[in-house]
Write a structure and sequence with these properties.
The chain is mainly β. It has one domain. Helix content is 4%, strand content 55%. Strands 1, 2, 3, 4, 5, 6 and 7 form a 7-stranded antiparallel sheet that branches. Strand 6 and strand 7 form a beta hairpin. 2% of the residues are buried.
Length: 92
């Protein structure tokens, strides 16, 4: 299995307790996960775009909980206030 790689043209910065991500893309073969937005304890938004993401990739985390995942994920998730009371919106 090929390792996950990250693009080199992404912008990431930390300022005043906020972590900013712009065009951060993790990929492995034809799978891709793209991150854009802000991680903070305020009402900021992080957008995550999944393209051909193999859910089996998460099994090392989910298997100990008795959860077996299989299939491919394509879609968009918005996460608000990720370090506070997290709210998510998704289009799958």
């Amino acid at each position: 299995m090929k390792p996950w790689t990250f693009n080199t043209d992404a912008e990431m910065r930390v300022s005043k307790g906020k972590f900013y991500l712009d065009n951060l893309v993790a990929s492995q073969g034809n799978q891709k996960v793209e991150f854009n937005g802000v991680l903070s304890n305020e009402d900021d938004k992080l957008e995550v775009q999944f393209s051909r993401f193999n859910l089996h990739s998460l099994e090392s985390v989910t298997k100990p909980m008795g959860i077996h995942l299989d299939g491919e994920l394509n879609g968009h998730i918005e996460v608000h206030s990720i370090f506070k009371k997290t709210v998510t919106y998704q289009r799958m």
